[in-house]
Write a structure and sequence with these properties.
By secondary structure, the chain is mainly alpha-helical. It has helices at about 15-25, 25-35, 45-50, 55-65, 90, 95-120; strands spanning about 40, 70-75, 80-85. The chain contains six helices and three strands. The longest helix has 28 residues, at about 95-120. It is elongated.
Amino acid sequence: MSEFGGMSPEVESPCHYRRALEVVSSKWTVLVFYELEFGKRRYSDLKRKIEGVTQKMLTQTLRQLERDGLVVRHVYPTVPPTVEYELTPLGLTLIEPMRVLHQWTDAHYDSVRQARMAFDQANV
């Protein structure tokens, strides 16, 4: 046990994975990351590029990413105010794992679809 009453740091707790998934599991989070991977983007650009996202969901996603320290919000004193978002250094550390997940999806999603169809046919 650690001094904080939990497991020792050497033992990975499943809750670590749960917490990591809380941060990145939203489809909107992943799509925001893909848009911010190459630099700052205005809110309106994000809204236009992320197909299907509502203003409410985009705002909630960006606020959560900002709260988690993965995105920084820049407000410029124009009329109306210009707002841009970019990944923080911490947010940039998630780009490579997200690329790997994207590559896995490209390589294996057809197999997942086929497995789903076979399962559904067998369990009608």
